[in-house]
Each structure stands twice: as C-alpha cells, then as structure tokens.
Amino acid sequence: MQQSHFIESIKNPALLVGKVDELLLVTKEFPYCQTTYLMMALLLKNNNDIQFDEYLKKAAVYC
Predict the structure, then answer these.
(1) Per-domain residue ranges for the chain?
(2) CA–CA dist 4, 45 (Å, integer)
C-alpha cells in the first residue's frame, strides 16, 4: 500500500473495502502503528469477520 493511498484511507475508510490483505501487510510491516490496527478492526467489523475480536483487542492495547 502506498503512502498516499494509506492517508486517503484514513480520511475515507470506505476506500478500504476489499483491501484486507493490503492492510494486513501494512499491519505486519509496521506492528506498532496503532492506526493500522484500528483500521483493520473497523474493516473486519464491517465485513462481519470472525477475526474482528482479535484485532479489536490488539487495537485496544496499542491505543
């Protein structure tokens, strides 16, 4: 994910639809970035994904 796309995704989370894999890569590349965990939790919640609880806990720890 490019920096400009990441910033636009922060401004407009609707751009993340279908980008779970890209965001997961960014989360693994920058494990201490709280924003990626929050964005990942939001995306998983919107998709009713079973991993939502896991990322919500991680987002809470990093925030």
Answers:
(1) 3-62
(2) 24
Tell me what the pLDDT averaged over the chain comes to: 87
Q: Is the dihedral of CA 43, 46, 52, 53 positive or negative?
A: positive
3-class DSSP state of 38? helix
Query: Smallest Cα–Cα separation from 42: which of 17, 7, 5?
Result: 17
Q: What does the chain come to in residues? A: 63
CA–CA distance, 51 with 8 (Å, rounded to integer): 24
Q: Is the pLDDT of residue 52 over 80?
A: yes
DSSP one-letter code for 18: T
Specify whether the CB–CB gap between 43 and 20 falls below 8 A. Answer: yes
Amino acid, single-letter form, for residue 25: L
What pLDDT does 29 receive? 92
